[in-house]
């Protein structure tokens, strides 16, 4: 498995943040070629139902408003209704890979709720909290974080939201 210097720096950054949360966790290394959720689950034997994706959404109009949303891989983020209403905008969409990198410093396939910029709200679909454990991005494409979902509610600006995602 190989990873870039940026991947290692990002992993080193989130490890102290994880430790400070007081929740048990495990860093799971992965081949960056298998970092996308479905490929990771298939390759390493994790259930899609336990995979929680962190997705950055953005308002369409300036000034841009952002939110990070955590949803199970078996659901779809409800951008057109729940997210835009909560964000207080007329139109919202998934941030592009380039915009996600610029705002969070993380690449798609490794985006995590841990260590997000302090001004970005973190909304967690209530279904995520029902899982015994979840697999989150590790802040890079070279690792994942395995932890109980309670980890998410200990992060700044976090809020559990009913029906943030659709089944």
Molecular structure report:
The protein has about 170 residues and is α+β, with helices and mostly antiparallel strands. It has a single domain, classed as YbaK protein. Helix content is about 25%, strand content about 25%. It is built from five helices and ten strands, in the order H-E-H-E-E-E-H-E-H-E-E-E-H-E-E. It has helices spanning about 5-20, 35-45, 80-85, 95-105, 150-155; strands at about 25-30, 50-60, 65-70, 75, 90-95, 120-125, 135, 145, 160, 165. The strands form three sheets. It has a five-stranded mixed beta sheet with strand order 5-2-3-6-9.
What is the compact description of this entry?
The chain has 167 residues and is of the alpha+beta class. The protein has one domain: YbaK protein (Alpha-Beta Complex). Helices cover 27% and strands 26% of the residues.
What is the terminal-to-terminal distance? 34 Å
User: What is the radius of gyration computed over CA atoms, rounded to a whole number of angstroms?
Assistant: 15 Å
Give the spatial strand order of the biggest sheet.
5-2-3-6-9
SSE string: HEHEEEHEHEEEHEE
Shape: globular
Uncertain runs are none
> What's the helix count?
5
């Amino acid at each position: 498995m190989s990873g870039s210097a940026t991947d290692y720096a990002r992993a080193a950054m989130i490890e102290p943040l994880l430790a400070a949360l007081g929740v048990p966790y495990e860093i799971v290394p992965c081949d960056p070629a298998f970092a996308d959720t479905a490929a990771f689950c298939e390759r390493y034997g994790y259930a899609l139902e336990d995979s929680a994706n962190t997705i950055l959404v953005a308002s369409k109009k300036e000034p841009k408003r952002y939110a990070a949303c955590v949803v199970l891989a078996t659901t779809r983020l409800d951008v057109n209704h729940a997210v835009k209403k909560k964000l207080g905008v007329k139109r919202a969409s998934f941030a592009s890979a380039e915009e996600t990198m610029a705002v969070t410093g993380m690449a798609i396939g490794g985006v995590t709720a841990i260590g997000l910029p302090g001004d970005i709200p973190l909304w967690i679909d209530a279904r995520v909290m029902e899982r015994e454990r979840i697999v989150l991005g590790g802040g890079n494409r070279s690792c994942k974080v395995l932890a109980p979902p309670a980890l998410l509610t200990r992060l700044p600006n976090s809020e559990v939201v009913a029906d943030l995602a659709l089944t």
